[in-house]
Amino acid sequence: MLASIGQFLLILSLTTAVVLMLLPMIGYYKNNDSLMRTGRPLAYLLFVLVFSTFAILVSLFVLQDFSVTYVWQHSSLALPLRYRITATWGAHEGSVLMWITVQALWIAAVARYSRSLSLSQISRVLSVLGIIATGFIAFVLFASNPFEITNPAPLDGRDLNPLLQDFGMIIHPPLLYFGYVGMSVAFSLAVAALIGGQIDEKWIRWSRRWTNLAWAFLTIGIILGSWWAYYELGWGGWWFWDPVENASFLPWLAGTALIHVQAVSERKNAFRGWTVLLAIIAFSLCVLGTFLVRSGSITSVHSFAADPFRGIFILVLLAIYAGGALTLYALRVNQLKSKDAINLESKETMLLGNSLVFITATFTILLGTLFPMIFEAMGKKISVGSPYFGLMFFLIMIPMAVLLPLGAQMKWHKDKMSSAVKALLPHFFIAGLLTVLAYFAFDGLNLRATAGVFGGFWIASTSIMQIIKFPGKPNAGFIGMSVAHLGVAVFLFGMSMTEHKDVEKDLLLKPGQTTQVAGYDFTFNGVTSIQIENYRAQQGSILVSQDGQPLVELHPQKRHYPKQQQPMTEADIYPGFTKDIYVSLGEQINDKGDWAVRIYIKPFIRWMWFGGLMMMAGALIALFNKRNKRLEQQQVDQVMKERLKLS
Amino acid sequence: MTPTRKKRLMMVLMVAVGVGIATGIFLTAFKDNMMYFKSPSEVSQQNYPVNRSFRLGGMVKESSMRRIPDSLKVQFEVTDFAASVLVEYEGILPDLFREGQGVVTIGKMQNDQLFVAEEVLAKHDENYMPPEAAAALEAAKPKYKNTNKESN
Amino acid sequence: MKKVFIALVPLSVFIGLIVLLYVNLNNHSEVLPSPLIGKKIPQFEHPTLYSNQVLNQDDFIGQPWMLNVFGSWCPSCQFEHPLVTALANSGKIKVVGLNWKDEPEDAIKWLKRWGNPYHEILVDYQGDTAINLGVYGAPETFLIDAQGTIVYKIAGVLTEKNIQQELMPLIEQMNQGATNP
Predict the structure, then answer these.
(1) Which residue of A332, B12, B128, C14 has the fewest C-beta atoms within 10 A of its own C-beta?
(2) What is the CATH code for B37-151?
(3) What span, in angstroms and rounded, lies between the C-alpha atoms of A55 and A63?
(4) Which domains does chain C have, with CATH numbers?
(5) Does B124 count as an annotated binding residue?
(6) What residues does the Cytochrome c-type biogenesis protein CcmF C-terminal domain cover (chain A) (predicted)?
(7) Interface pTM (ipTM) of the complex?
C-alpha cells in the first residue's frame, strides 16, 4: 500500500519535473512573464513530491515491509533501527532516489535564494535544472525502481551488506551527492547563459557561491569516503586510486579549477568562455562518475552489481546533458566575449595558471581511469597501477604548490612579479630550514616526502605571512582562502608522512607472543568468540606497550554476519595526534590458535583529513563575504526596480 | 612586436612547454605502470610479460590451497578450467578469498611454473566477481567445451 | 573560423568519450560461465533433514535428478518455492534440496509453512558442497543426469520461462536417454 503511494508520488515527481523543464523555457522564448513565473512554485512542488517519495522508502525500511523487493534485499528483522534507516540509501535503487531528493532540494534552494537574478535568468536556470531532474527521476522510475513488489513477501530479508553497517557510510553518500548535485547549479547557469548568449558579473557572482558550497560538500564527501575506507575496509589504506574513488575526485579537481577561475570572472570581463566550459566539465564529470560506478563497465572493487540497461540509461543522460551543453558552447561561446585585457603579471594570470594545473590533473587521472577501456575496445586487457596516479599527481602538484603562494600574494589587475617573489623569498628559506629539521627529526625522508613536506611548510609559512600583513580588517573571502590554503599545507604534510613513513607488518602471532614494531611492543593475547546484535565475531586482544608501559589494549574483530557469506575484518585503531596504531586480524592459521595479524603505524594520517576539513571550512567561510552581500543587495534592488517598471 | 603581442606569445609558449612536459611525463609514467591482464591459459602458453608485473585472474582451484607451516606463505592454483597456474603469496588473504571463487592476483612469474603474487584481490560481494576474472573464464569456455567433447 | 574550430574541440573530445563508453558497455561481459557443466558432481556426504541417513553423490546415480540450493533465510527461495513444488509434483524429475548454511530447526519450520516438495533434503550446514558447486547465492538449481554429470545450472530464481524453455527440454531429453540407453 505504502509502496504504491511511493510509486505514484514518483510518477507525479516526474510529471512535475517535465513541466518545470518546459514551462519557464517556453515562457522565456515567448517572452511571457506569467509562464516564466511558474518556475519557482514548480521547484517547491517538485521538492515536496520527491522528498515525500524518499520519506516513504525510509518508512518501508523502518516498518520492515518485506513485500518490497528492495527492502528485503537490503535489510532483515535483526537489523538495528539505525541501520534500517540508512539501508535506504545503501544500495543502488535507494541511492539514486537519494540523489534525486538532493537534486530537488538544491533546485528548491536555487528557487528560494535567487532574488538577485532577473526573471528571464532564473526561469532559464530552473528549466535547465528541470531537464537534469527529469532525466534522473526517469532513471529511478524506469531503471532502478525501489518500490517493486515481491509476491509472496518473504518472512525475513537478506540483511544489509556488513560494510555498510557503519556510521561513515551513513553520511558519506549524502554529502557526496550534495556535492555532485550542487555542481549542477553552476552547470545550469552556464547553459542558461549560453542559451541567452550573454553572461555578466552578477551571474557569475551568484553562481560562485553555489559552486563554493557544492565544492565544500564534495570535499567533505571525499574525506569521509577516505576515512571510511581506512577504518572499515580493514586494511589501512586511505586512497587506492580505484576508478570509483577517481570518479569522485575528478569533479573535485575540475571544481577546484572552476572556483578559482570564477574569482577572476566575477570581477572582470575575462575568462568568460573558460568559466562556462569548466562548469560544464565539472558537472559532466559528476555524471560520468555515476556512470562508471553504476554501469559496472570498469573494474573496481567498489562497483555496484552491473546492469547494462542502467549503464545505457546514464550514458544517454550524459550524452544529452554534456553533449547538448558542449554543442551550445561551440555555437555560442564566441558571443561571450571577454573584453578586459589581462596583464601577465597579475593575480588573474596566476589563477588562470591554477585552473590549467587542475584541468591537467583532471585529464591525466581521467585518462588513467579510461585507458583500460580503450585497450579493452582493442581486445586487450590491461590495468593502470596506482603508482601511475601517485606519480602523476605528485608531479602536477609541484606547479600547484609553487603557484599557490604567488597567486595569493599578487595583486589584482597589475603587479610586479619581482616584488611578489621578493616578499615570498624569505619564506622559501624558512620552509627549507623547517624541512631540514623535519628530515632529521623523522630519521630521513625520501625525495617525494621531502618535496611534499617542503611544499606544506612553504604554503603554510607564506599564508601565515599574508594573514599577518593583510592591510586593514580581513574580509570573509580572504579568511576563507587562507584557511583553505593552510588546509592544503596540512594535507600535504600529513599525506607525505603517511605515505612514506608508515610501517606495515603482516605477522604470524602465537597466543602470548610479543613482537616489536616501530618501537612498540605488541602482545597477542589470543582470540575469543563473542555475539553482538546481528553478528558473531572472533575478537582478538592485543596489548600495545611502549618501554614496558602498557599503552592500550586493542580488540580487532573478524565478524560473521549469518545472512551474508562474507566475513568482515574490523580493525581496531589507537588514534593519535602524530600517529595511529592500527591492528587487524587476518585469519586463523592453525588449530593452536595462531593468527595472521596486520599491524600498521600510520604517522600523521589524521592531519590529511584535518587538512581536507580546513579546505571545506575555507570554502564555507568565503560564502559570508560582505563584499558579495553588498553587491548582491545592489543587484536585488536593481531587479526590483526593473520589475516595477514592467508592471 | 607590440607589448601585448609579446605577452601573448609568452603565454602561449608557457602553455605549450607545460603541455609538452606533461605529455612526456604522462607517457613514461603510463608505460611503466600499465599492467596486462592474463588468464591461466595465456600464461601456460608462455604468453606473459617477462620480469614485469601483470594481473592473473580466474578461479581459485578446488582443494589447491596449501599453507607453508609457520609462515604467512600460501600456495594455490588459479584456473580458468582450461589451464591452471601455481601462485605463491605471502601475507594476509582478503576476507573473500575462497577456493572455487573468483580472484585476481598481481605479481610476476618467477619461472615458467610459479607466479609470485604481491597482491591478491577477491570479489567484493556475492553478486560480484572481478570482471577480469569473469572474462578469463568466459574466454576459456570454448576450449573447455572442445576438450569435453573429445573426452566423450 | 579558427575560433569556431577551437570551440568544437571539447565537443569532439566528448563524442569520442561517449563512443568509447558505449563500445565498452557492449563488449564488457560479466555473465558468469558455468564451469561445472559437463563435469561430474563434486563428491559430498551429507546427513538428510528428515530421513536420518547420510547420503553421498553415488546414492543418486541411476536416474536424473535436480539439486535445488535453498535456505530458510533466503527470500528468493520462497519466491521460487511454488515452482519447485510444481516440478517435483509433476513426477518428471527427482528433486533434491540442498539446505545451505541453515539451522535445521529453521528449515523445518520453513518447510512446514511453505510445504516440502523435496524427495530428499541434504543438510549442508558448513556450506562445503555449495562452495564445491561454485554457488554464488541461493537459490541455485543444478540438473544432473543419471551418471552424475552436471547438465545445466541456473543461478538465481526459477521462473516459468526458464523452466519451460531451458529445464524441461533437457529433462525430457534425459528421461528419454534413461529409457533408451
Answers:
(1) B12
(2) 2.40.50.140
(3) 12
(4) 45-179 (3.40.30.10)
(5) yes
(6) 315-626
(7) 0.79
